[in-house]
Amino acid sequence: MIGGPQGSGINASAEVFAKACSRAGLRIYANIEYHSNIMGKHSFYRVRVGDEDVRSYRDKTDILVALDHETLAGDGDHRRWPTHYGHLHEVNEGGGVIYDGEIGFDIAGGRTDLHFRAVPFMELIKKALEEVGKGEQARRYEVMKNTVGLGASLALCDYPFDLVAEVIRSQFKGKRSEVGELNVRAARLAFEYVKEHFDTSKFPYTLKPYPEPKARIVAKGYEIHAIAKLKAGCAFQTYYPISPATDESVFLERQQRDYNLLVVQCEDEISSINMAVGAAHMGVRASTATSGPGFALMVEGIGFASITEAPGPVLILYQRGGPSTGMPTRQEQGDLQFALHPAQGDFPHLVIAPGDLRECYQDTFSAFNWAERYQMPIIVLSDKKLASVYTTIDKLELMYDQIDRGEIFTGSEWTPVAAKGPNDQGTQAPGHNGNGHKLDLANVKEYLRYALTDDGISPRSRPGVKGGRFWATTDEHDPDGHITEGVEMRMAMMEKRMGKLALVAKAIPRDQQYFLHGPKDAELTVLAWGSTKGTVLDALKVLEAQGKRINYLQCRLMKPFPAEAVGRILREAKRIVSVEENYSGQLAQLVQEHTGVMITERANKFDGRPFSEDEMVRALSRVYDGAKAEPVVTHVR
Amino acid sequence: MSVSAPAKLTLKDYKSDLHNDWCPGCGDFGILTGIQMAIQQMQIDPDKLAVFSGIGCSGKTPHYINAYGFHTLHGRVLTVATGGRLANTDLTVIALGGDGDGYGIGAGYFVGTGRRNVDFTYIVHNNNVYGLTKGQASPTLSKGKKTKSMPEQAIQDGINPVAMAVASGYTFIARAYALEPKYLASIIVKAVEHKGSALVDVLQTCPTYNDLYTKEWYEGADLPEKRSRLYKLEERGYDGKVSDPNDREEIVAKKAAAVARSYEDDPIPIGIYYQAELPTYEDAVMQRIPTLGEKPLVEQDVFHRDVQPLLEAMR
Asked: Reduced to 3 states, what is the DSSP secondary structure of residue A43?
């Protein structure tokens, strides 16, 4: 773990270290905690390294690198209500603490088991600069403290320095290569300083690279969402800056030229969603990305897209701590119920919640196909944790590369596909819509954008196509797309639109809807969704080794909800506990609503931090052993 | 813009056969006619025309035009039209809506649109009231005014749409009168021909709720000597067109002149207040994504992208 004030570059150090480990064949899982602040407030980055897949973080760390006093002692000395008490309590027994010798931290009376290593950060930076004749500029290069911390920690755990130097160099290319070399120098000096001044052989935690490492990628969730969008043929992305969703759009903005993708920064999220709806109607694959407060503005656009049966957009909703502005940079799975019911009236839309980076790719990719085939907006529920987690992936599954653009009117040979009026059964006289037009649809020969077809899907056209002319209105409408308030047409159109949900439910692969992990017969069934997946799986591995038989039902498709299958699994379960990173247990509510299965044990965490593996193990053990579930809180001291 | 079809299209070809449900005598009819006359004069292919509207009486306009029509959300028409236009630059795009729609609930998008300068025309039906909800004060009704539909005088002041458009960056700003459809059509033609965001603020009567600014009022029937309360800018030697768009001083002077004219209230100037040929959003986009100069986004092949280089960079 490395901690320091925001702006001190802890993420660069952590990511360089993570990447160096990944290149050496190790698995990594790294996550950052930071404040909604540009400079100065406390942030820290955990990097967990493993031989096997690591999918969550642990409560404790083996090495702590502190760039400032607050990382060691917390902010109680300058805040009326302390937000934390430092990270020393999170260092494993016998672990190492590397800190800037200048910060004047008094280790007396504290953890006597720890290996404290005071390193003269600025002195080493100055030395590195002197080597290239820039010694007088040391203050300008203060930001290299992060690299010094990195170099020092590598010495402590005896990791080969060159592996890291190579990654540092690859981060500073072209004009910046000189800065890269400086960083390598500073890190090396720190590495040598620790080797020279301390006996590192006594340090119990070492890290060894694999001799023949397997090539993997290290990615963050927002990058994966963005790459899935590119792969799926998304041509139009809109956004308004908001944490933690912005990174995805900025990533895509960088790819505009190479991938023929237009990214528009809008005046607000209302503009973002509605521009995307406009573009979707034009026939391009359109998308946007936001977080809770932005989504709160976008909701009218969801209803708009749905009633006009727009083929999109795909919206990635990066949940963060709510309500209102809440905790902008912290984790929460708090928007499930909101995403399910974002706007007025009954309307079809899809909500899917991927659980890890691979699923982020699959679900984002699939969403564009579904949006066009079923002509409805799609919400992919991601969150802060998925967006910013930095972790190894073997490869992205290539089975998700088939583009399906749904039914399209091309203008060549239009036959009114089973066009029918709402009351064309028998010999009933045709009804009338609100504008006095006869509903004699069986004889209509021209293209109808909202034709009442057997399956509810009307082939779509787009402006510019000859003979495919249509009107789209947010009012209730007839097959032409003109406004109607007629009873029969209203009924027919509602049933047409809502009926599409049943088609979707049939078409989406079962594994993408829900998945039962672990043994079929278990003493306890964990009900969870979204980004807790890795944590639950890691915890189950620990609990299985303890002889506990626990399985895990991962719900992924939230609307339409696979009620029958989920209900069947849960009715067969001996006991159920839901784990969610929100206050109320929003999936538990959804399950109750759809299946009638009551979820009484809910281990919820709503302190803005994701579950650690240890917290998950404790929460599940507790219920497994027969106690009541209780809210889970991060131990801050 | 896409012009020409082999056989000359008549006005009838631009009319849909939908029954119109506006109040008899509504100023919307004049605006609808003005639009249809303009697109007929320009012989725009109806298949390559997309008309976007907001919500309110004016929002129904696209349904009466034989073209691709999008009747969107209250206040958001400009955002949807922008998305549509950027996705397919082969289309002629006309956006329209009421004064409440554009200058009230949609004010943020009115400003944003000016900043972007996307190439389309925005027609505002400006009748000082919210008609479809039975005549409340709109953002263009001045403080202290009271129509017969209002229980009290307007307590907020009206905004100046022309000045707001100048400040926001619209590159074509004009005003016309709904009951002079021929003149309106001539303005709309110029607006559509203009490259960039063009605002046409149309002074419009609402015979049902607005008893202040009626046909008779615009005609000055109440004045001791009857005369129109409108005058045409070009008839008084005004020229709002910037001759050298690289000349910042000229731009500032023309903007200042437009704003000064926009505060004249008796008679009210109609015609083109300001026009400058400045780079559009599309021009800027083409610099970022050169292939968009060859064909619109919707026709680009985006389904065979190689993302491998991005993944390689993550090793």
From this structure: strand
